[in-house]
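Structure record:
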Amino acid sequence: MAFTNEQMERYSRHIILSEVGVKGQKKLLNSKVLIIGAGGLGAPVGMYLAAAGVGTIGIADADTVDLSNLQRQVIHTTADVGKPKVESAKETMLAINPDITVNTYHEFVLASNIADIVKDYDFVIDGTDNFPAKFLINDACVLAKKPFSHAGIIRFQGQLMTYVPGEGPCYRCVFKSPPPPDAVPTCSQAGVIGAMGGVIGSLQAMEAIKYIIGKGELLTGQLLTYDALKMEFRKIKLPHGDHCAVCGKEPTITELFDYEQAVCGVNYDE
């Protein structure tokens, strides 16, 4: 595949990097990344992956744009209020880079459809805002042997980790199961500073890019936490769970299922 003059100019700052170059940019253009959640995390992820030239980006979200989203979900504008988030996100991504393909899934991601959605992608971004969705994404990716980036934000704090099949613990190794539906505050009760989505979502995009080009160290086996008020990042080593229900030596979860859908928990915001 030969680059056009326009592509050479568009991706010039990538191409001059020894870690990327022409070979790495071609990998990006030939890659497919799925973003589940077009909100506070999915917004910066989608914009940066589009700008980077990830050739095919899928975006799944059943919601429509609400005025309260705009404080953090920067892929949408005031004119998009009432529009499906996936359509608003697609318009923005294609406006940034018409060189790419954007697939939209205006539906809830459930046990009945997630396997069919993730199967065609090389990497998955979890930008969801509730525990049942996060456990479902984890289980689907583990069973399908798909790498993914988990992240969550709340108030002035955020966290993320990356799962790569065979190279580290999955989300369920660390967090065994969702908390009871009424055990945690809702997003609207807890609040979140808008820029947190940009900080953590950009790091998720970086994890996807590094995975695709095969450079650098990923957050496999590590949880990265960020406290914005203290301006402090910490890495916490995560052990693999030999007894994990989905990726352990004797897994008990071999089929996908839906947990009761609860409001979002204190560690997460879409």
